[in-house]
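Help!! Second protein's tokens look totally different from the first
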Amino acid sequence: MTAFRLEREVALSATQAWGRVTDWGGHAARVPFTALASVTAGPTRPGTVFVVRSGLGRIGVDDPMEVVGWEPPADGAPGRCRLEKRGRLVLGWAEIEVHPRGAEHSLVVWTEDLRLRPLPRLLDPVVARVGRVVFGRALDGVLR
């Protein structure tokens, strides 16, 4: 199974943490050899599509994602975002949750199921381990 979960307690309000973890360009900038290639205009909402491109030079892989769930934190309730990966090679989903922990603290939970189409299921544990490291570093970076 390729699913993994990351949790971070941060000294940020839920609104601040939400803004950082839903900054798609900020995430892409913290993943090696990756950049935000395009994003639907306007504020993020269900139906927003963005594409990150990972690679070197002309050789790379596009990872299109669609926002299928979007509930920013409000009135003490947690925020939730669900992304569905729509690519030919990179498949799966991600769920981002931001739970308020008082006025100045939050718990950020990132759960991801990452599948790479050309790899056999036998390598799922390796994909999950690498994903946990790469996404963990990106998450730490956007929350600093």
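Here's the second one for comparison:
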Amino acid sequence: MSDAAPRHARAPRTLVQKLAPIVLGFEAIVVLLVGLTIFGLNSLPWGLPQWWAIVGGVVVAIAMVAVAGMITRPWAISAGWVLQVIVALSAFFVPAILLVVLVFGGMWAYATIMGARLDARRPSDPSRLTEETETHRESD
């Protein structure tokens, strides 16, 4: 016999909560590569040691993974937008990073904005969802 307390079912995740961590997870990998690119091209100004580019890339990537893990928190989407701005600012060092900003920023915007719109259209009662989406057979 188990003395463990019964686990409560987790609330269903919204579309935003499903898509946003995927975007941030893949973007974290690219941000690591961006840090290595800035390091390799010696693009840091003002006499800063070039290894700070790697440190910055690792810190931002870890922040992205952390925000992706806490996406159900109310502040997580805003934190994701802040991280998108930080990645956009790195284009000052290497302008080609603007391509990364456009691709992942676009995916983040789609996941958060359009995901929220689609979530708003979804019925709040799950039983209504199955009734509305059932297919009709020829015998009906």
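Reply: Different proteins will give different token patterns, so don't panic. The radius of gyration is 21 Å.
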